[in-house]
Specification:
Number of strands: 0
Structural class: mainly alpha
Strand content: under 5%
Largest sheet: none
Helix content: over 70%
Number of helices: 10
Radius of gyration: 17 Å
């Protein structure tokens, strides 16, 4: 088992709950999982601890959205995402831990600022494109490999497609379920699925699964705009802390 303090376990429970809430319908909440855990361990270890929890949580999402996805969107984005995962794997021994900490913080900061200041989405509905899908998919795959933070590039590509809410949720679930399953291979090869990480993940999985159920209910009663604004400000604060930590 990981040698965590009480505060470390509190943050681990928060991270696991964030993953479950994300799979329960509050999609962007999962972004805070690795940044929060990175406050008490290296982001590399945090990502390794969270991956099994993501994979198990994905199973519930796949059952819920087994028929609701857009194959054209997946076909245009997944090849780039797999390439991005490969790039992350190839550079895993080149980028130092402080560099990974900085990347995790920068990704969170960029997303938080974009969410806080971007104008409402306007314009005509786009069609899936191999050029855009490959480019944004590659960025999504890389940031997903580094810190399970592939959602911002994915959203940049998918939101202008104006999918129905159900199709959007299902396509997103399938995209990241495939990415997370593929990531098991490089994570295992790099030693990030250590016995200690797996045991801790097993302890945290019930928290994530209960949070999936909670997310399905909270999404119906909490004003979505208020909830995501609170999460975004929290992500902004944690990301700034990680950037300072890496630079210091």
């Amino acid at each position: 088992m990981l040698d965590l303090t009480v505060w470390g376990w509190v943050l681990a429970v928060i991270a696991a709950a964030a993953v479950g809430l994300a799979k329960g319908g509050l999609a962007m909440v999962g972004l805070i999982s690795v940044p929060v855990l990175s406050l008490v361990m290296s982001p590399v270890q945090a990502a390794g601890l969270m991956l099994p929890i993501y994979v198990v949580s994905d199973m519930g999402g796949l059952m819920a959205f087994r028929w609701n996805f857009d194959m054209r969107v997946l076909a245009t984005a997944l090849p780039g995402a797999l390439a991005g995962i490969g790039i992350g794997w190839a550079g895993a021994h080149v980028v130092p831990v402080d560099g990974v900490t900085f990347i995790v913080g920068a990704v969170g900061l960029i997303f938080a600022l974009n969410a806080l200041i971007r104008p409402p989405l306007k314009g005509e509905r786009r069609s899936p494109s191999y050029a855009r899908g490959t480019g944004w998919g590659l960025l999504s795959g890389y940031t997903s490999f580094v810190s399970h933070a592939g959602a911002p590039p994915w959203q940049v590509y998918v939101q202008p497609l104006r999918l129905s809410a159900l199709t959007y949720a299902g396509t997103t679930t399938w995209f990241f379920a495939v990415c997370n399953l593929v990531k098991l291979i490089p994570y295992a090869a790099l030693g990030q699925l250590s016995p200690g990480n797996l045991r801790a993940a097993a302890v945290l999985m019930p928290v994530a699964l209960l949070s999936v159920w909670a997310g399905l209910r909270l999404v119906r009663i909490i004003p979505e705009a208020l909830f995501y604004r609170l999460i975004t400000w929290g992500l902004l604060a944690v990301s700034l802390r990680l950037i300072w930590q890496a630079l210091a």
